[in-house]
Write a structure and sequence with these properties.
Elements: E1 4-11, E2 18-19, E3 23-26, E4 47-54, E5 59-61, E6 65-67, E7 92-97, E8 101-106, E9 111-115, E10 132-137, E11 141-146, E12 151-155, E13 172-177, E14 181-186, E15 191-195, E16 211-216, E17 220-225, E18 230-234, E19 250-255, E20 259-264, E21 269-273
Antiparallel strand pairs: 1-2, 1-3, 1-4, 4-5, 4-6, 7-8, 8-9, 10-11, 11-12, 13-14, 14-15, 16-17, 17-18, 19-20, 20-21
Length: about 270
């Protein structure tokens, strides 16, 4: 509610030592997507960083996190070549695993995809492959968030709708993909879903307001409100959407095939479902 500024502290350890320039993030209560450019990184060197936000009330420090520009290592099932990392792939800043293919986002804003290509999911359309800031994958399709807050998609449309990003979708700050459906979190705290509406996957509950994070499972989805409460919806055949009573102070969620996970701000993990 007060005019605030934000910046990042970063360095090779938790003493940080370097700060990015402060940027104005407004005086609202919604999610704000902010970036700061840094340079001079040593490749394959893990760097620590944390977000700092300050206003007239005080200064708040976020959790310690890790960034790097690194090579990619993959392991596990390889029935479609999804763990065969393309030779020479480097300068990667984010990764995502999909059902039968894998994704990497490079520091030049372009995605590289490998594995099963039955539905052209590894052929990123050139017109879409620019200014990307996040990637996510479903069973045979992919979505990506662009720097301007829009979302693009390519690959299979088996259950009509997986790649049909809503035309008016904008101001997106976070994306997530399940097996056949996708989610986008907007900077006003609302969540939009599209794709196959199996078990109501794309029917975002009204209770999920002021959202700050989202995640997709196979046939269920999860979101976190800014009060640390988890909202889950979709298939509940094995209790995967039965959020444990009293669960609070959640800072991250993840969805599996038939189970869900929540990370609390004290570093503990809660799991439910199959």
């Amino acid at each position: 509610g007060y005019p605030s500024t934000a910046w990042f502290q970063w360095g090779t350890n938790t003493l940080y030592g370097s700060n990015t320039l402060p940027v104005n993030v407004g005086n609202g209560f919604n999610v704000v997507y902010t970036t700061n450019q840094i340079s001079g990184l040593v490749k394959n060197m893990p760097y620590h960083f944390r977000l700092v936000v300050s206003n007239a009330v005080g200064t708040i420090y976020g959790f310690d996190q890790i960034l790097d520009e690194a090579n990619v290592v993959a392991w596990g099932a390889n029935f479609a070549g999804q763990k065969i990392v393309p030779p020479g792939l480097s300068n990667v800043v984010a990764i995502a695993g999909a059902y039968d293919h894998s994704l990497a986002l490079k520091n030049n804003g372009k995605a590289v995809v490998w594995g099963d290509n039955t539905f052209n999911q590894t052929n990123v359309p050139a017109a879409l492959n620019t200014n990307l800031v996040a990637v996510a994958g479903g069973e045979s399709y992919n979505i990506a968030l662009k720097k301007n807050g829009t979302v693009v998609a390519w690959g299979a449309n088996i259950f009509p709708g997986e790649t049909n990003v809503p035309a008016a979708l904008s101001n997106v700050v976070l994306i997530a993909s399940g097996q056949y459906s996708s989610l986008a979190l907007k900077n006003d705290g609302t969540v939009t879903g599209w794709g196959a509406n199996i078990s109501g996957l794309t029917n975002v509950p009204a209770a999920l307001s002021n959202a700050v994070s989202i995640a997709g499972g196979s046939f269920h989805n999860l979101g976190i409100r800014n009060d640390g409460i988890v909202i889950a919806w979709g298939d509940d055949s094995i209790g995967q959407t039965d959020v444990p009573a009293g669960l609070s102070n959640v800072v991250a969620v993840s969805g599996g095939s038939f189970h869900s996970l929540a990370l609390k701000n004290d570093g503990t993990v809660v799991a439910w479902g199959d």
